[in-house]
Design goal:
The complex is a heterodimer of chains A (595) and B (33).
Chain A lengths: L2 H29 L7 H15 L9 H24 L16 H12 L9 H4 L2 H31 L9 H27 L9 E14 L5 E11 L4 H10 L20 H25 L3 H27 L33 H14 L14 H12 L10 H21 L4 E2 L2 E2 L2 H26 L13 H16 L14 H31 L15 H35 L5
Antiparallel strand pairs in A: 1-2, 3-4
Helix pairs in contact in A: 1-9, 1-11, 2-7, 3-4, 3-6, 3-16, 4-16, 6-7, 6-8, 6-13, 6-16, 7-8, 8-9, 9-10, 9-11, 10-11, 10-12, 10-17, 11-12, 12-15, 12-17, 13-14, 13-17, 14-15, 14-16, 15-16, 15-17
Chain B lengths: L1 H29 L3
The chains are: A mainly alpha (595), B mainly alpha (33).
């Protein structure tokens, strides 16, 4: 680790800290329909949308209506995307004449983008047409993020309202999240990305003549090897900047290219790298301020922000330290590889990392993308040192509440807040209260349903895949604990709606397309329902005045308790699985074994 | 055949999710869960 590296990390975090309050206050005004500087532009458009679609913006919804509207919206958009992929070869904007997508892969992809996961079992530039990328996938990048923000607002209203049966209007919240927050930010930032060299066009792919022809040898199914001389290289093009910006801003993560943010057309300069990480944290950080303002307890919002920040710095420190260390096998007496950090080389573990990004910006990006539900990558997590690779996995296993996905991070963290308040209430022997609301039996049961569905999906699907040699194990690229980690990572990433991968798993098979699709659906919708049920229950409650037994939720003590609850729940649930994967791999690496 | 299975399977998941919504509501109202 270097001082330069830590300065870069601190600059990144300072930018987030500086923008959290102005953005958070703006979003609170948008969702509470207060006057903002953007009214003159967006209010007429918003009214026009409601007039055209027949939405009554004054109509409030009970939690069941809110949940049902969200589910209906999701299933319709999922099926439209599926149809678009299946009919791709007959549709326009397909200059490469790409064929239609196979049904199981099309289903996996439609689920993946509907659930804000963006797990990709395909190579985008050789599978998806420009129309599919824009109208099918980037469309979901906007609206799955908008739905996440709408759900977070519904939950915050559940906390802030008293004796109310309603949580807002799903269609209005989703429209406002898209129109007032996501679209304008994405438009401005996309222009900034284009100025840095991110491509934005509809041209067919370019063919470049190689200065030095390459001889490529391949082995066929019959075991015979054939060689051919390659003299040209295909350079993929497309409307990249417009998708790149919402990929980060909406914590989606699905790359226009297979190499994702390691590709120079997606992430060409140090400034775009910083900007992309900034966009990932921007809205989730702002939502802590929004929550504090809407619940009329700004200090509580900052206490939650502090808990998220503490967990972020622990994660980035472990990741950065692990990757900056020399690989002990390359350092051994027989190999003598120089892995020191010098003016000419970054040192440490550079396997799977872009030289332009180096150790610091790879470790930071990996932490940021898995603290949130993004899943974009600028380095290959499969090539990290065992403990370095464990950090992204742990970030996801904690429920992606370290800033988290847009909206989903906020309501996920508030679930942990309620769990913390409940535990604090048990410790002092008083009925737990949260911002003037009593936390009762139904609330705790919905909280536990939310908390338990998550590991049930991850560990259940992983166990099934590991028990089936012809289906689960046949796709592994590595054996031993690293192979175990590849499967565990896949189901963790999909259930957590992250979408990043340990790329050693070849997951474009019937089994993985369907089972990972099921994990994404469970991780998104079966967790949202108890969350909204809890919000509905909280909204109906009376406010009770604070008493000496009320546990304050705006103090450093609360922040420490919240961090401990998150870590203990995560550790108790996943430590056995981590012991079989990255922890065992770390110990075996130092005993001289790799996988 | 695959297409029919994919459409029916995903639609069925959402139908069950809507039933799950009303199941939570009903059990919450009864105080039975």
């Amino acid at each position: 680790m270097t001082a330069n590296g830590w300065i870069q990390i601190i600059i990144f975090f300072a930018a987030i800290f500086a923008c959290a309050k102005p953005l958070g206050v703006y979003m609170a005004k948008v969702f509470e329909r207060e006057k903002t500087f953007a009214d003159v532009i967006f209010r007429p458009i918003e009214r026009l949308i409601y007039r055209l679609t027949g939405i009554d913006e004054s109509k409030e919804m009970r939690w069941t209506e809110y949940a049902t509207s969200m589910l209906l919206f999701s299933v319709v958009t999922l099926l439209v995307t599926y149809a678009m992929e299946r009919l791709q070869q007959y549709l326009p904007l397909n200059p490469q004449h790409l064929p239609s997508v196979a049904p199981d892969l099309a289903l996996n992809t439609a689920i993946s983008f509907t659930t804000n996961t963006n797990w990709q079992n395909y190579v985008p530039e050789t599978t998806m047409s420009y129309l599919t990328q824009m109208a099918g996938l980037a469309y979901h990048n906007f609206f799955s993020a908008a739905v996440g923000i709408a759900l977070a607002m519904a939950f915050v209203r559940g906390i802030s309202r008293k004796e109310s049966n309603t949580l807002g209007n799903f269609w209005v919240d989703t429209t406002r999240a898209s129109l007032w927050v996501l679209l304008p930010t994405a438009f401005i930032m996309a222009l900034l990305l284009v100025s840095q060299g991110v491509v934005q066009n509809f041209r067919p792919y370019d063919q470049a003549k190689l200065l030095q022809p390459q001889v490529v040898t391949t082995v066929g199914a019959d075991g015979k090897s054939t060689s051919q001389t390659v003299t040209t290289q295909t350079i993929a093009q497309g409307p990249v900047a417009s998708q790149e910006v919402i990929k980060e801003l909406g914590t989606n993560g699905g790359g226009f290219f297979n190499a994702n943010s390691a590709h120079p057309f997606e992430n060409p300069t140090p400034l775009t790298n910083l900007l992309e990480m900034f966009l990932i944290f921007l809205i989730p950080a702002g939502l802590t301020v929004t929550m504090g303002r809407m619940t009329r307890s700004p200090a509580h919002g900052w206490a939650v922000f502090a808990a998220m920040s503490a967990l972020f710095f622990v994660g980035v420190a472990v990741s950065y330290y692990s990757e900056a260390q020399a690989n002990p096998l390359l350092h051994s007496a027989s190999m003598h590889v120089n892995q020191q950090s010098t003016a000419l080389q970054p040192g440490g573990n550079m396997e799977g990392k872009e030289v332009r990004n180096g150790i610091t910006n790879s470790a930071l990006f990996a932490t940021v993308t898995t603290d949130t539900s993004t899943g974009a990558v600028n380095s290959m997590h499969d090539s990290y040192m065992p403990l370095g690779g464990m950090v992204p996995m742990v970030n996801m296993m904690l429920g992606e509440v370290v800033f988290g996905g847009v909206g989903s991070g906020m309501y996920g963290m508030l679930i942990f807040v309620i769990l913390s308040v409940f535990i604090a209430g048990l410790m002092v022997g008083r009925t737990p209260e949260y911002l003037g609301k009593k936390i009762e039996s139904f609330d705790v049961k919905m909280t536990m349903l939310y908390v338990l569905i998550f590991p049930l999906s991850i560990l259940g699907f992983s166990a099934i895949a590991l028990m089936m040699p012809n289906l689960g194990l046949a796709s592994l690229g590595n054996s031993g604990p690293h192979g175990f980690s590849e499967i565990l990572y896949a189901y963790t990433s999909t259930t957590a709606n992250n979408g990043s991968a340990f790329a050693g798993l070849s997951a474009n098979t019937h089994w993985y397309n369907l089972s990972l699709g099921a994990a994404m659906l469970v991780g998104r919708f079966l967790m949202i329902v108890p969350m909204l049920a809890l919000a509905g229950s909280l909204a109906r409650k009376k406010l009770i005045p604070a008493s000496p037994g009320t546990f304050p939720v705006n103090t450093p003590l609360f922040t420490v308790l919240l961090v401990c609850v998150i870590l203990i729940v995560g550790a108790l649930t996943f430590f056995p699985a981590l012991s079989l994967g990255p922890i065992l791999e770390h110990l075996l690496l130092h005993a001289g074994k790799t996988f | 055949m695959w297409d029919i299975g994919c459409v029916i399977g995903s639609t069925l998941f959402f139908v069950l999710s809507i039933a799950y919504v009303f199941g939570c509501e009903r059990l919450g109202a009864k105080g039975a869960l």
